[in-house]
Amino acid sequence: MYLLELGAEIKTQRKAQGLRQGELAELACLDRTTISKLEGGHLLELGFNKAERIVNALGLQLALQVPRKRPTLDDLIKEN
Q: Whole-angstrom Cα distance, residue 35 to residue 54?
């Protein structure tokens, strides 16, 4: 998962739980600006500990998975 995708998922989960950015930041012991930049795709780097605190504050966990293969043009054509 890319940081941009993580930020989008964090935003989705936060909103689903009815939390404001400041509330999530407080639960994760971070600044609200960190959450804002992450969700907005403006954060260039986020350490593992910070990422873990954010997802844990949302009641989620980080997990490893085999990356999905990007489809080729032929794969996309076959789907249609």
A: 9
pLDDT value for 56: 97
Assign residue 77 a region (left: φ > 0; alpha: ψ between -120 and 50; beta: otherwise).
alpha
CA distances from 1 to 9, 64, 66, 69, 77 (A): 10, 9, 10, 12, 25
Q: How far from 4 is each of 23, 59, 69, 73, CA to CA, in Å?
A: 21, 20, 18, 24
Give the residue from 50, 55, 17 showing the smallest Cα distance to 31: 50
Residue-wise pLDDT for 21-69, tens only, equals: 999 999 999 999 999 999 999 999 999 999 999 999 999 999 888 877 8
